[in-house]
């Protein structure tokens, strides 16, 4: 929600009034001037060129060593596929490793046997390992995911599309935010029967990257015996935003 505030400050304001904004030093206003504070947002839309997703392996075993050994074998294959796909070492990073015991369900077993439940007992172990991947050739993402699944990856999350170099888009959003703020200041000034004299201050809030994407799923018609098509992925657009707070001096 956009808000604005108009404060009438006389040139003879007392020191207490002059200190209403402890974090921003503002030069004295002219006689009969008013202070207008507002916020504005700018956005820049781009086609993403970077996708982040995670790929992992979940395995189970009768004991901890068995679960971890099976997991390591499958995870080696997962990382090998990523390397064969041309993904650089710096774009593959281990994100989580875990080993947890698996317990039986004593309540269910007790109901089946018609007796009081026994304490839970360990019946096996579950091992998890996953890597965070940055993919720079988005057109290959469907094939990479299919290759990962074919070698044992059974946990895939993502993707999150973004920009590898967002500075140009951020600057474009900043310019739009300033222009929007100036236009809004002119509007408020006319509505109050005043004019904009000058910009007193500009401060920037945090930028953001709301992702607008479409991931297409579904089946395709294909000839009998033909290999299945790669998993369809559509990156859509990303919107880079900039928020600014501005203060203007208004006068009649």
Short summary:
With 252 residues, this protein is an alpha+beta fold. It is built from five helices and nine strands. 27% of the residues lie in helices and 38% in strands.
Care to describe what's here?
By secondary structure, the protein is of the alpha+beta class. It folds into two domains: 126 residues, Translation Initiation Factor IF3 (2-Layer Sandwich), CATH 3.30.110.170; 113 residues, Protein of unknown function (DUF541), domain 2 (Alpha-Beta Plaits), CATH 3.30.70. Helix content is 27%, strand content 38%. It has five helices and nine strands. The strands form two sheets. Strands 1, 2, 7, 8 and 9 form a five-stranded antiparallel beta sheet that branches. α2 packs antiparallel against α4. The longest helix has 25 residues. The protein is elongated. The protein starts with a strand and ends with a strand.
Oligomer: single chain
Number of helices: 5
Helix/sheet category: alpha+beta
Tell me, what is the CATH class of the largest domain? Alpha Beta
Strands, count: 9
What sequence of helices (H) and strands (E) makes up the elements? Answer: EHEEHEHEHEHEEE
